[in-house]
Design goal:
Jelly Rolls, 6-stranded antiparallel sheet, 11 strands, globular
């Protein structure tokens, strides 16, 4: 199946592929919004059309995905038992420090970009400022300035084995993310509730199973399964969002790390990193 250019941009930015059922709506929304997402997009050092770059890169992942599925040391369920990942308890123990840094950050909320301010392709999942993101790492690239603003949080996520991406995901009241799925199963996804106004109203559904975030509690899932999320409360919902490498035998992990290095050279990811640096420079809090 062919995906529109904006859908492929989204896949490269978040390792997620839109659900086919929402493709038509996604195409309409993103075409209308792409031009208004960020005023100074980075220039792309490439001569290939963006859709062709993305198609070539992700088309080769079929065999590696099969290898990851067969060799996974933790199986392939939609949700994982937290006990399979001992480091999760350490992250949970750090919740008070993370919450303290988050509260200070939210006092300067206007310095936090919307997802599509960093990666314009995200306009298909969110508009305006209904999904904010504060990145520590993006596909292996560290944002030093953001790590300095939340040093305890940065230090904790750096202790997660195989961590590749980490950020605060801030979802506005009433926001729901439509069904989508990841494009490569080398990664698993970790969420910990940092600020959850009402756990009854803040949910995520993976492969038909719905769970609810709780403050200081972990959820670990395989984002290759179709999933969606929502905040039906009247306050912001914040989770710590982390992608990390799936536990597999050493030769397979080497393969996945090689593919990650290739992904880091894709212009769309370089553009996102450059956009975040530009955003921080333009919105840096006074005296910092």
């Amino acid at each position: 199946m062919r995906y529109p250019r904006a859908s492929l941009n989204h896949a490269l930015s978040t390792n997620e592929l839109p659900h086919p059922a929402s493709e038509s709506q996604h195409m309409t929304e993103t075409r209308a919004q792409d031009e208004d997402t960020f005023t100074e997009p980075a220039k792309r050092p490439t001569k290939l059309p963006r859709w062709l770059e993305h198609s070539i890169f992700w088309a080769v992942l079929g065999v590696p995905s099969l290898i990851n599925r067969i060799t996974s040391k933790v199986g392939n369920p939609p949700f994982f038992d937290n006990d399979r990942f001992p480091w999760a308890a350490e992250i949970e123990a750090g919740w008070p420090n993370i919450r303290e840094e988050l509260d200070a950050l939210l006092s300067e909320e206007d310095t936090i970009p919307a997802f599509h301010d960093v990666a314009p392709s995200q306009a298909g999942l969110a508009t305006g400022r209904d999904w904010l993101t504060f990145f520590f790492y993006g596909m292996g690239a560290r944002n030093d300035e953001n790590c300095r603003r939340c040093p305890k949080t940065a230090a904790l996520v750096e202790r997660i084995p195989g961590m590749t991406t980490a950020f605060f995901s801030i979802m506005s009241p009433g926001k729901e993310l439509k069904a989508h799925r990841g494009s490569f199963n080398a990664f698993l996804r970790y969420h910990m509730g940092i600020k959850i106004p009402d756990s009854r109203l803040c949910y995520m559904t993976v492969h038909g199973t719905t769970k609810r975030w709780e403050e200081g509690k972990s959820l670990i899932f395989d984002d290759r399964y179709i999933h969606s999320a929502g905040n039906l409360s009247d306050e912001n919902r914040v989770v710590l969002f982390v992608d990390f490498l799936r536990p597999v035998p050493a030769p397979v992990e080497a393969m996945n790390r090689f593919i990650l290095r290739l992904a880091q050279s894709v212009p769309a990811l370089q553009e996102a990193n450059e956009n975040l640096i530009k955003w921080n420079a333009a919105h840096r809090p006074a005296g910092k």
